[in-house]
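Lab notebook, page 48
Experiment: co-folding of the full assembly
Goal: obtain a model of how the components sit together before planning crosslinking
Operator: M.T.
Materials (sequences as entered):
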Amino acid sequence: MTAAIDEAYERALAGVGKVQEIRIGVLDERALQRFSLVVGHTDAAHQDPAAAAELGYDGLLAAPLYLSAVLGWDTGPAESDLLADGNSTTPLGDVDVAGLRLMGGGQDLTFHEPVVAGLDVTMHAEVTAVTRKEGRSGPLLVLEVHRRYVDAGDGRLLVECHESFLAR
Amino acid sequence: MSGTYPEAGDVKVGDTVGELVVTPTEITLFRFSALTWNPHRIHFDTPYAATEGYPGPLVHAHLHGSYLARLVVGWAGPRARLTRFRWQNRQYAIPGDELRVTGTVTAVNGRLVDCELAETNQRGETCAPGWATVELPEKNS
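Observation: model returned without errors.
Model output:
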């Protein structure tokens, strides 16, 4: 286990500081409605475009965690390329944590502009730090990720997200 | 106060921001996995979860966070704006767990209201603490 953590640490370190630009695309109204429904935002602003417009929004309002909860925005790997636990070998873009289990530790989000259906969004993602720690059940890695979600058209910053992951 | 929602000046430190009780099911977890394009078996495969020592599939970290955010957004109302939100995952939850989300106002600065949030399970364990700042609408705006 220690050797695997040490190897993953060295490989993950190589990805620190690289900023990836990921095209999310135009936010789909139905996708926003579905996410809001499942987490329980059943109010009009999150379900009814007309109600959102009456409140002054340019489109149906997204749930606060919509952008930062979605793990993948592209087609993703074929099933045969997933790990045995179902995870992608590169859940954090090109940061190599293959073989380790990732657990979300939490997020710190700043909302600069409303996120609404119809926005064309780009994400800039960067692993800012990898730390090796000794946990109660053995060694682990703590990965810090910073994501900036911007309007693809004019570059306006919409949401910032700092997230930590534990990798064992 | 506009209807049932607070406006600037309506709240003070120590006020509660309501309560939310949710009991996620396996269907909830499946749908959340699908919506977030998350193929991790820990969230939908009970036999797999057992191999990692868990009694059931795990509620997603971001679903815990979503419940916390839902409480404060629902309390503040449609004319308020969530400006900052953070949470941490402390204790896992599985389908059938009763998750109670509560919150308290900890600071008021003009229209900005800080809240401390907590999601606890039926055993009283904190699954996820959270913190939020909301901007309330102007009085009678």
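Interpretation: The first strand of chain B starts at residue 16 and ends at 22.
Next step: discuss with group before ordering constructs.
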